[in-house]
Write a structure and sequence with these properties.
alpha/beta, 8-stranded parallel sheet, 12 helices, TIM Barrel, globular, 297 residues
Amino acid sequence: MSFEWKGVMPAITTCFNERLEIDHEFTARHVKWLVDNGSMGIVTNGSLGEGATLTTSEKSALWQTCIRAVGERVPVIAAIGALSTDYGVELAKRAEAAGCAGLMVLPPYVHNGDWRETRAHVSAIIGATPLTCMLYNNPVAYGVDFTPAQIVSLADEHPNLNAVKDSSGDARKISAIRELDKDRLAVFVGLDDALVEGVAAGAKGWIAGLVNALPVESVNLFELARRGENCDELYHWFLPLLRLDTVPKFVQLIKLVQARVGMGNARVRPPRLEIEGEELEQALEMITAVLGKRAAA
């Protein structure tokens, strides 16, 4: 399946049942709902999807569920994050075999290597299949910050590297990539609360988190920003929720919003634990207050 990297692509959460197994029935319904409401792709088993807690067979099953659910309507993208390069290559090949249309390639977990090591790791994964790839830059979470020059050099080496997800929070990086690369790469915003600024700098898409609960509002916000129209009212209403994507317990908090809108539950896999006590009360108070003003937005 060929496609263009653009628009709002949810980084989906992974829904678990009471036994903390993947709820495939819900997952199929969820991704169909996201596509029905304007999503241009489905990104699976990334950080928000608790990919580090999923076994290899679970990842394959999750990819297949998503592919069966959305068919040829939009691409299913597999996030490839691994401790070892060999395992990353294996996951890439499994994603291709499962029918995924593209890969989102992460730097290695745990080992924050120098450029020579990091380049070798991501190059091996990008080169393992002919699938179109997105490089994921998230210096806060992964301790590796790809410079614009490094990103462009990887694109020069790999014709199938066609996109970048930037979660640095610095819109200047988007501008710098575009300047060096002459817009060969599609740059995506990777932080929910940097969407409008990133699009203004030239981003073509958004790998989004709160879209899991609020796809209509997410797609509307992106489209207003893309067209250069005034989105202040919607953005200011949405920002308290969008900021949940940028804190350590972002998975738990986004799942709480999903539960509040009736599209998911709050279950997470250890080492994450569900929020409780005063922390839960404060989070729900804010979520409820913002959602109560939803119609006005």
